[in-house]
């Protein structure tokens, strides 16, 4: 049976491009690994943030659009995005969030302690300490590499039909059910990042897409050959996958499972150094070749953004 290693990336809607960069780079210390556009809506940026290479399992991506409609977090979405941090680094992150005036709450789930907070568009984010998974080597602003976010710890899925979503997790993606408590069921994927997935046991009402909500969650396929196998499996399960789509940095197949959540299968290769050197990632607006003739117009329609150290880290 095919088994995914876990989350490849998570993509969300937000409403301010510079504020998005400031939060995920300036506050959380992630690297902007790619600045490009939504290939389906070239008037909108597509930002990718992750570790030093943008490794699968570390990549949070965004479609920022000014004056975007505010969404409502609920069923048919990833409700909470979980990042993992090095063991012993929680006090650092609590102090850091306090320094930036970001309110957080402490919570416990399946014996693990989390801190939960919102980004500046209302997305729910959690940090959890874990030993597993490689350390990041990236540092920025006031976040040293030994305290840096390693990547995804996992996610909490909000399903309108929990039984159907759990069926996909178990019988298509190959996750293993490992625990159940307080209305949540926990699954484990095969990898060491983005590998612990929690889901509501009881069905939830629909959320509404918009700024502050997750658009889709992508699962890892190790290569192009396995990716084709995933697509055939999904089609055989009558889940109507899209054709394989070239996203420049990975190939993608999308399908909406019957719990309402948009799933993607994404390949690990070719990666974000496909069109620029590792040491220059995220510095220039990168366009696929079919948009290059329109670069000037595209750039005129996009707000200027910069990666910057925030004032709180300069004081």
UniProtKB/TrEMBL annotation:
Signal peptide residues on this chain, from the entry's feature table: none
SUPFAM superfamilies on file: Glyoxalase/Bleomycin resistance protein/Dihydroxybiphenyl dioxygenase (SSF54593)
Gene3D superfamilies for this protein: 2,3-Dihydroxybiphenyl 1,2-Dioxygenase, domain 1 (3.10.180.10)
Residues in VOC domain copies: 6-130, 151-268
PROSITE patterns: VOC (PS51819)
The protein's name in its UniProt record: Glyoxalase family protein
Protein species of origin: Paenibacillus sediminis
